[in-house]
C-alpha cells in the first residue's frame, strides 16, 4: 500500500507474467527432488523428472512439437471418453499454442476449451 494515498502499488498480473510464472514453476518442479536418497522411490522420481525435463526442453525449443503432442493427448483423452476427437484435439492444440507460443495464462486457455466443449 502506498502510505500517501492508500492505493496499492502492485501492478495487475498480465498473461505473459502468469505464463512466465507457470514455466518457472514447471522448471522448479523438474529440478526438485523430494524422495529420500538411496531408495527405489528416489530412483523412480529421478527417472521420471529427468525424462520430463528432456520433454520440457524440447517443447520450449520447438513449441509446435509441444502443441502437436498436447493436441494428440487431447485426441487420446477425447477418444477415451467418446467425445468428438478431432474437435477436442483441435481445441486443446489451440490452447497449447496460446500457452506455449503466446504466453497466455494456462487457466484461461483451459477455461476457453471447456467453454468451447460446452457449445459442441
What composes the largest sheet?
none
What string, H for helix and E for strand, traces the elements in order? HHHHH
Radius of gyration: 19 Å
Helical fraction equals: over 70%
If you average the pLDDT, what whole number results?
A: 76
Shape: globular
Q: What percentage of the residues does DSSP assign to strands (E)?
A: under 5%
Helix/strand-derived class? Answer: mainly alpha
User: For the terminal residues, how far apart are their CA atoms?
Assistant: 46 Å
Helices, by number, come to 5
Number of strands: 0
Low-confidence stretches: 5-10
Explain what you see.
With 120 residues, the protein is mainly α. It has a domain of 83 residues. Helix 4 runs antiparallel to helix 5. The longest helix has 22 residues. The radius of gyration is 19 Å and the shape is globular. About 5% of the residues have low confidence.
Give a short overview:
The protein has 120 residues and is mainly α. Helix content is 73%, strand content 0%.
Helix and strand topology:
Elements: H1 15-31, H2 40-61, H3 63-81, H4 85-100, H5 106-119
Helix pairs in contact: 1-2, 2-3, 3-4, 4-5
Tags for this model:
mainly alpha, 120 residues, 5 helices, single chain
